[in-house]
Design goal:
By secondary structure, this protein is mainly beta. The protein has two domains: 92 residues; 88 residues. Helix content is 0%, strand content 21%. The protein is built from no helices and 17 strands. The protein has a 13-stranded parallel sheet with strand order 3-4-5-7-9-10-11-12-13-14-15-16-17, with no helix packed on it. The protein is elongated, with a radius of gyration of 21 Å. InterPro entries: Serralysin-like_metalloprot_C.
Length: 235
């Protein structure tokens, strides 16, 4: 059931001789997995349609149905999970890592993202340098947010265009949309009210949880900063 090219150390579950010219070090297992390969080297695909469009891209790993399905010349990506990095089309080495069901699903011309967890970053398209760990972390319909870090389930999951945000804890920063340069640490810190405020720092459970548009605030402690704007608050 396998087609092998011993001279180039490659093995496939289907005959790729019609397209494979000099590709080396590839392994593919699954229906249409890596079936368009031409010169790309050192790729591994496992699952239906995994790396099915890759031609010249190298050093990719796709495990799961539709993993990195549409990339042709992108390289250095790792996708584990059903439809992880499915829409990626970046031309060149992009070094994205997506682990989990639909992780990075809609990334297209994007690079240097690390997304771990179901639906992490699944609304991103062309954003770069984002890191998300946790179910639906950075899972909103992002329009342009970059250099963001989200650690915890539902962290920064409503972000649309904000940059340089850091959220740690369950639902931390989960109501942020355009408020950039923001740090939220703790359960639901900046989690239900902050929509557009920027340059805010909330440290503690539900700190600044009711803020809607205030900027340049620092709140430390449980529920701190829920009633004041443009101030330093401790509880």
């Amino acid at each position: 059931p396998f087609f092998s090219d011993s001279s180039n150390f490659s093995m496939y579950t289907h005959d790729v001789s019609g397209t494979d010219n000099t590709a080396a070090g590839n392994s593919a297992y699954g229906f249409k997995a890596m079936d368009a390969i031409t010169t790309g080297d050192d790729n591994t695909a496992m699952g239906e349609n995994a790396l099915s469009a890759i031609t010249t891209g190298s050093n990719n790993v796709g495990y799961g149905k539709n993993a990195i399905q549409k990339a042709a010349s992108s390289g250095g990506n790792v996708a584990v999970g059903d439809s992880a990095l499915k829409e990626l089309t970046y031309d060149g080495n992009s070094y994205n890592v997506a682990i989990g069901h639909n992780a990075g699903l809609n990334l297209t011309n994007a690079a240097y993202n690390t997304l771990v967890g179901g639906f992490t970053g699944d609304g991103y398209d062309t954003e770069n340098h984002n890191t998300a760990f946790g179910y639906q972390a950075l899972g909103g319909s992002v329009a342009g947010g970059e250099y963001n870090t989200a650690l915890g389930s539902y962290t920064l999951d409503a972000l649309t265009s904000a940059d340089f945000c850091t959220a740690v804890g369950y639902q931390a920063g989960s109501a942020l949309t355009t408020g950039g340069y923001t740090t939220a640490v703790g359960y639901q810190a900046l989690g239900s009210g902050n929509v557009t405020g920027s340059y805010n720092t909330a440290l503690g459970m539900q700190a600044m949880n009711n803020t809607t548009s205030g900027a340049n605030n620092v709140a430390v402690g449980y529920g701190a900063g829920n009633d004041a704007l443009n101030t330093i608050t401790t509880s």
